[in-house]
Amino acid sequence: MSRYFAVPVFALTAIVACGRSDRDRTTSSGASTPVVSGSTISDSAEPGRPEAAPISYERAESTYSAGRYAEAGQLFTAYTQKNPENPWGYYMLGLAAWKSGDRDQALSAFDRSIELDPNHRKSLYNSSRVLLEVGKAQQALERIETALSQEPASSEGLRLLGRARYELGQVDQAIGAYHRALTIDDRDVWSMNNLGLIYIQQGRPTEALSPLARAVQLRSKAPVFQNNLGVALERSGYPEAAARAYEAALKADSTYGKASVALSRVTAGGEQSETQPIDLEQLAAQFESEIAGWQGTTPADSTGALSQSAIDSTTSSIEAKSDTLEDCEHEE
Question: How far apart are alpha carbons 271 and 112 in whole angstroms?
Fold first, then answer.
């Protein structure tokens, strides 16, 4: 899966690893009321051989959590064949297929989950992520709006709304969606990152500094956040600070090619001086204050008009990365 978030490239969220198992949720609207699941089946054994180990939701989910996605897909396929009315089985099959690189099968499984439960928010959200990944932003938007109609105060849903709106060229609406997501969850680092990315791509890198500084403050070892902060600093005229951000990205991930190229670019020819130092801690605090100021305001009132400046030659250094698999950090 690409590092991109689909800005014009990509983003995703939480899946299943950190809390209660999805099988313990109801089959309506993704609610959290436990339900009884007695669905345990067995692999068909050949005549004369002992019966194979049972295939249960727990076994398939454990395989998924261990990162064996292709195997998990096979297990969830068998599970759904025996439990065709359980939307969570198809949801997990969709995740396993997606992580295995089979977007078509993923969408098919998510669609079946939604057919069984039209308000299945996780399937709506994650299918929208796949649709964004394959360039079908309008279809993604429809699913995101359906999920948000069930849960309007979802920072995850609003973050996805921001991605879809931006993909469709609705820049102000995208920024407004990220603002709303952050008023609900002021530690939503992916909304901060994606908001900063919009400002960078719209030719306003200085406005990207405060949300990216806050994202890095909250998640200093995330190479994508450090890299994007480096891009914003570089374009804002702070080459020394940019170099430090790129170095931090490489410290977190030594294979991070974009940061390596960018670091070579800003350090070519020796150290470059800055007219004055930049205080990233102050910028992060400033962004916290901005979020507080958005409380109770209409998103449209806080976005302002944005220029349509062309992306310059360092655009390839920007990494929007997906917000997928971040459920341990915010919700899902």
Answer: 57
For the record, the structure tokens of 166 come out as 């931006």
pLDDT band at 294 (very low <50, low <70, confident <90, very high): confident
Count Cβ neighbours within 10 Å for each residue of 164-187 and write b for 16 or more, e otherwise.
Answer: bbbbeebbbbbbbbbbbbbbbbbb
- CA distances 70 to 45, 101, 105, 131, 132, Å, are 21, 9, 12, 21, 22
- pLDDT per residue as tens digits for the range 48-89: 555 555 689 999 999 999 999 999 999 999 999 999 999 999
Question: How many angstroms separate the CA atoms of 77 and 57, rounded?
Answer: 11
- Amino acid identity of residue 3, one-letter, is R
User: Alpha-carbon distance 232 to 234, whole Å?
Assistant: 6
Query: What SS3 state is found at 40?
Result: strand
Question: What predicted TM-score, i.e. pTM, was given to this entire model?
Answer: 0.75
What tens digit of pLDDT does each residue of 198-214 get? 999 999 999 999 999 99
- Amino acid identity, residue 32? S
**The tokens of 75 are what?**
């297990």
Q: Within the chain, where are the H helices?
A: 57-65, 69-82, 87-99, 103-116, 121-133, 137-150, 155-167, 171-184, 189-201, 205-218, 223-235, 239-252, 257-267, 280-294, 327-330
DSSP string, 223-258: HHHHHHHHHHHHHTT-HHHHHHHHHHHHHH-TT-HH
